[in-house]
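Worked Example 4.2. Consider the chain below.
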Amino acid sequence: MAIGRSENKGTPSTGINNVSQQFDYDLVIIGAGVGGHGAALHAVSCGLKTAIIEAGDMGGTCVNRGCIPSKALLAASGRVRELRNAHHLKAFGIQVDNVSFDRAGIAAHASNLVTKLRGDLTNSLTRLNVEVIHGFGKVAGTQKVSVTTPEGEKFITAKDVMISSGSVPFVPPGIEVDGKTVFTSDDAIKLETIPQWIAIIGSGYIGLEFSDVYTALGSEVTMIEFFDQLMPGFDPDIAKLAKRILIDPRDIDARSSLLAQRVIPGSPVVIELADAKTKEVVEILEVDACLVATGRIPDTKNLNLEAVGVALDRRGFIPVNDRLEVLIDGEPVPHLWAIGDATGKMMLAHAASAQGVVAVENICGRSRQIDYQSIPAAAFTHPEISFVGMTETQAKEAGVAGGFEVTAVRSYFKGNSKAIAEGESDGMAKVIYRKDTGEVLGTHIIGLHAADLIHEASNAIAQRNSVQNLASYVHAHPTLSEVLDEAYKRAAGVH
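Applying the procedure from the previous section yields the following structure tokens:
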């Protein structure tokens, strides 16, 4: 359901100037990741006396171990790849010789960026009088939180409590992680070594992005995927093209339908590969290093939610509705909220931020619901992949259930003047829409600056816009945005 006003079920908070005498704060947030930080800033802007509790580093996974440092590595390694592509540069009349790089310097680029952003986050909170409490926070009862610090345990009360505890890398059974030769993305961003041969278990966002980094810096990659097709979470058309652009031309041996049944750290790393269906061992692989990129799981085990009767689901996620109220048997728990990876809805930093704003709006009595369909996602490979809304398969299933027909159109970067001028014309945009109303249901892009282009489609879905309307909008020429313009016009029958 789209973000919007509906019947208010909550009680408006009293605000900073009228905090009830029985509470220390209007709002206490457990976890200072991107979601918790955004919620705190919005809460203060709404007049709520707010505190945020953080046991680790400010900024959570995204700033310290995820989005930010990985994008720094991708930016640096991408430039190395580009400068070493003599054929591509020759087309521009450019010649570059003897391109080299400093591994430690690239790692420092990522580390310095993390330090800066972490400081910026802290400063923004203190500047706005959000109290930052360093310690491990957990639920202690209704409208009550405990904080464990080196000095001991203390209790604080709040009219509303919000959980934003984030997630941690998932390591499947049988895989031993030592942080040096076998590691997750949390350690990979440190770039302590560049192995000659690295196995990457998983071909989702994390696996794709790090395969991009490692191959650009000279590593040979073996990619191991459990499912029968690579990039199982992507639209099939995009996955097919991504394989042709991002995997086949590079030093990547991509294998599907295989289970990394056992991984033993060391020199070499020993990987026992089994058939995904039969679980029979088919090969013993020996490599220099192994990155476990098998997704993330919620960091919710020690929150003491049972103190208020909340049970985690079978995967460890906190059950919430689209207002971000925590649920018991489908019913909201008064004054208890959860956002971000801990909810398992969309494990993305910007999704957590959006959830935080919606939750605060509800706390303040302005009833809102979040629209997950309009939240985009991206992989920052070279070129990028992005999507928003449904895949074609999901849309057709929705069509069967809703009694409407779904169709899709494609447009290509090869026909785009800006992409041709950049010498980066590999790519495609796919727009999925209702045949009767023209409403856009999903958009998927692979190509130059796909992560930026997707926002036009994201806004279209948020507004429930039609391809007919979108086809009438004017796009600047020559720009990459014309790839979407072309798709809309094809869908509307203009081209």
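DSSP finds 14 helices and 23 strands in the chain. The mean pLDDT is 93. Compare this with Example 4.1 before moving on.
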